[in-house]
Amino acid sequence: MKKCNVRITSKHFHELHHALGYPWPEEIMGETYRNHFATDAGSDTADCMRASPHWTGGTEKFGMTFFHVTQDGKRALLEHMRDSVDLPARFEITYHGHNWREIVAARSRSAAKYGAYLDADSGDTFGEFVRRIKSVRLLSRAQIGGAA
User: Fold this and answer.
1) For residue 82, which of 11, 137, 29, 139 has the smallest C-alpha distance?
2) Are residues 119 and 74 in the same domain?
3) Is position 25 within any domain?
């Protein structure tokens, strides 16, 4: 699935999300695309990470310190995203004559079609592309921070 590209205003939680590769909330507790954050060893960021239970103590390599998100950090990020982050709806788009589907995050069905069109880079006009769409199905509703 594509990255969960959302706005997280808290620097701490943004860094946790970045370190894990921008997962969707249901992916946070599992195996993620990545799990590391690199920063200068003597930086304020490194000092904050060393003091936090959300990060490992850090290992130095190549003149940088690499931190990894702990299980406590994953749980805290998941809770923060559920409580404070606006998540767009996700739509499944299938195409006539194709055996594959695409998942698109968008605010509406029409925005999902347009997002798929931008991702496709097919050379078709938008109208031609839309005619190839077989269905647009809502997979998950948008969640506004603070709503369950």
Assistant:
1) 29
2) no
3) yes
- pLDDT, residue 1, reads 54
How far apart are the two ends of the chain, measured CA to CA in Å?
22
Dihedral sign for Cα atoms in the order 17, 21, 25, 29: negative
Asked if residue 75 belongs to a domain, the reply is yes
**Which residue type is seen at 62?**
F
Please indicate, yes or no, whether residues 60 and 46 belong to a single structural domain of this protein: yes
Round to whole Å and give the CA distance between 53 and 74: 11
DSSP string, 8-33: ---HHHHHHHHHTTS--GGGTTS--S
| 135 and 101 part of one domain | yes
Residue 36 tokens, joined: 């590391």
Domain that holds residue 120: 89-140
Within a 13 Å sphere around the CA of 115, how many CA atoms are in the beta-carbon half? 19
For the chain, how many structural domains are there in total? 2
pLDDT digits (tens, 9 = 90+) for 81-133: 989 998 889 999 999 888 778 888 888 999 999 989 988 888 899 999 999 99
**R_g over Cα of the chain:** 19
pTM of the model as a whole: 0.76
